[in-house]
Design goal:
403 residues, mainly alpha, 2 domains, five-stranded antiparallel beta sheet, 15 helices
Length: 403
């Protein structure tokens, strides 16, 4: 028979493959809902972050100005509406791509928007978009599952690695758990001691999720850790923007890994598809460079690790009256001179921490310097803490240099 006239034979029905595909599709559908609602919740809680008109300065990537009003309001509206639609329609790939484009555009106009929760959500949505089309098959489902699994597992692993420093044990963890220590003084010492176990547990979770033998145990540890962290956050009433992120992380970990024997650590870590290769680079390799100041800390799971830069603006008494009223609640005096706490300012106005990189501190401080024409202000950038002692080295920039 001529090959041109030969009819193409249909592939035989594989019931095991169909069942597996249905199981993958169901998990990914629920994951899409969790991530989409997580995005919407984070945007609502940080809504002023996405607007141009605010006292906390924009920090554009290329110093090209700002989006004019009302374009910023329109994009904020889309950031709130699109995730809700994406969560509940069957084939949302065009909307997912549109949402990611908006996130990138807004991120270019302000690096303060590069928050770790949104960075993770964006890559999870990109991976989910890969299999969100009408012609999704086993290969696409597997690529999406492997990419999402690596994003989640890497987040736990590098979060633990970032916390392996003296500053986390001496300062960050005691401050983070201070409300619980105050409420339960009888077990305060025990809560302080848990700081030693936090990085070890997170690293173990990240590794355990990639193994079949310890996967379910790792899921239980992860969910328990998020419930514990969420309880501490709620008790302190601070950083509400990461409350839904903790819920989303717990749900995502359970959906992807709980009793899932299809995931294989070797396949996850040795990808052969462009999407998976990108995820391995961004979430598996680049965070290691942050330990050598070659990659941003917040893109390396360093939130609440203590292993970040700090920045304050020092102000002499004569220049206090030159500051706008909106900034004065964030000016403190533990000793002379007074200082403007840039992180508290960001929390107070935008409900997110400042993006902890020197280039951001310098741009924000330059805006503060514009309120004074003399040399009564300067920026102090405190470097990352020493691994064993927690000591920081400081650099100072006067306003003339920043301008």
């Amino acid at each position: 028979m001529n090959r041109r006239n030969r009819k193409r034979q249909p592939r035989p029905f594989n019931p095991c493959g169909a069942l597996r595909r249905d199981a993958w599709s169901y998990r990914l559908k629920l994951l899409k809902i969790v991530i989409s609602l997580g995005v919407c919740s984070g945007i609502i809680l940080s809504r002023r972050l996405w607007l141009t008109g605010r006292s906390f300065p924009l920090v554009p990537l290329f110093n090209r100005g700002a989006l004019p009003v009302p374009i910023d309001y329109i994009l904020l509206g889309l950031l709130l509406i699109l995730p809700v639609i994406i969560a509940f329609i069957p084939h949302p790939r065009p909307l997912m791509v549109s949402l990611l484009i908006i996130v990138v555009v807004l991120g270019v106009f302000d690096q303060m928007r590069w928050q770790p929760w949104l960075f993770q959500y964006a890559f999870l949505l990109a991976a989910l978009a890969f299999s969100a089309g009408q012609r999704a098959d086993d290969r696409k489902f597997r690529v999406t599952l492997n990419a999402c699994a690596l994003i989640i597992a890497s987040t736990y692993f590098w979060s633990g690695v970032q916390k392996l420093n003296a500053n986390f044990l001496k300062q960050t963890w005691p401050e983070f758990a201070s409300k619980a220590i105050y409420l339960f003084p009888s077990v305060g010492s025990l809560i302080r001691l848990t700081g030693f176990t936090v990085p070890v547990i997170e690293i173990a979770i990240g590794i355990g999720l990639l193994t079949r033998r310890f996967r379910d145990v790792a899921v239980i540890l992860a969910v328990g850790a998020h419930l514990f962290v969420l309880a501490l956050l709620i008790s302190s009433g601070e950083n509400t923007v990461v409350w839904p992120w903790n819920v989303a992380m717990a749900c995502s970990t359970a959906l992807l890994f709980w009793q899932n024997r299809e995931l294989k650590g070797r396949k996850i870590l040795t990808p052969n598809q462009p999407l998976q290769i990108l995820v391995v680079i961004v979430f598996g390799f680049l965070p290691a460079l942050s330990l050598f100041d070659l990659w941003d800390s917040y893109l390396s799971s360093a939130l609440y690790s203590g292993n970040i830069y700090q920045g304050v603006v020092l102000i002499d008494h004569a220049n206090l009256n030159n500051l706008p009223a909106a900034l004065r609640p964030y000016v403190w005096q533990q000793s002379d001179p007074w200082f403007l706490d840039l992180n508290r300012w960001a929390y107070g106005e935008l409900n997110v921490p400042i993006y902890p990189e020197p280039r951001v501190f310098r741009q924000v401080a330059a805006r503060v310097c514009s309120y004074s024409s003399d040399s009564g202000m300067s920026l102090e950038i405190r470097g990352k803490p020493d691994l064993f002692t927690g000591a920081r080295q400081s650099e100072h920039y006067d306003c003339n240099h920043l301008r």
